[in-house]
Amino acid sequence: MSFTSDQAVEALRAAGEPTRLRVLTLLAGDELSVMELSRILDQSQPRVSRHLKLMADAGLIERFPDGARVFYRLSSDLAARRLVDMVLDLLEDGAADQDHVRLEEVRREREAEAAAYFEQVAPRWDQMRSLYVCESAVEAAIERAAGPGPFDRVVDLGTGSGRMLTLLGKKARLCIGLDLSQNMLNIARSNTAKAGLDKVELRHGDIFATRLPGQSADLVIVHQVLHYLIDPAAAVREAARLVAPGGRLLIVDFAPHALEQLREEHQHRRLGFSDAEIAGWLREAGLATSAPIALPPDTEDLTVTIWTATRAETAKRSVA
Ligand SMILES: C[S@@+](CC[C@H](N)C(=O)[O-])C[C@H]1O[C@@H](n2cnc3c(N)ncnc32)[C@H](O)[C@@H]1O
């Protein structure tokens, strides 16, 4: 919560260098890998790694390994956060504009690659999904975690071919599926119609800015989407924003794993998530977490986890 004077000096020294200030500014907005930082800063990976190590040793940032890659974000320690905020506040407006332009380029490239991948795999997605894990076990567990319903409004973010809607839609008065891929949405349209669901809205939209009203859904699902995203924490915040008082958010994704090939072959950015990481994001977003449900690997050494969180019944309603 607070630094000793030695720690404060070490932290200020660690921050007191031009490249390191640029890194702190970038990490204030996103978690980034060494490779991404090195591209944005136009400096070699070993050089960037040295800066990162110094700041991690001083407690300003946190490193978290993800398979063979390492990602960095600002420290969650309050004293460190206050110090970083104070230092960044002193910088003149526009000091990091160029870096933010490059960060946007990196983001856009990443999103374009993932979008092209989903447009292309859309017709095969239903078969591909079941190659990874035992779908029937996962879906039975999702149904249990969702609860018996009936639901007023179910929102499925990154709905893909609409599998979650066909699984849970019969218990809902209205289902909304949102996705960035038009090809996926077309398949979701056909799948939900075949399943006899008539109260379904399929919308083209971005999980980071859904434009859906706050606290409006009694069930929100994010199924196998987070590991593709450049800012999974922001997606969790947006998903949580939609949860109505007494409502529930289900996040279904992989536990940490080591299948590096999924990055190249299937555009995964993160190789799974730890319980602590997801629980931290859910709590920061104002939801109460339940014990995660881990579904053991089937064929591919991939454990699927269901993280459930709820908004208190009495929570103040805000529609921002
Ligand atoms: C692996 S698929 C999962 C689809 C579905 N939830 C399922 O489990 O079958 C991931 C989906 O997320 C969508 N997606 C990726 N980034 C997105 C974003 N920023 N906003 C909305 N959807 C996104 C992709 O187009 C894709 O349909």
UniProtKB/TrEMBL annotation:
Keywords annotated in UniProt: Methyltransferase, Transferase
Stored PROSITE patterns: HTH_ARSR_2
GO molecular function annotation: DNA-binding transcription factor activity; S-adenosylmethionine-dependent methyltransferase activity
GO biological process: methylation
Domain HTH arsR-type intervals: 1-102
Pfam families attached to this UniProt entry: HTH_5, Methyltransf_11
The protein's name: Transcriptional regulator, ArsR family / methyltransferase fusion
Organism listed in the record: Brevundimonas abyssalis TAR-001
Taxonomic lineage of the native organism: Bacteria, Pseudomonadati, Pseudomonadota, Alphaproteobacteria, Caulobacterales
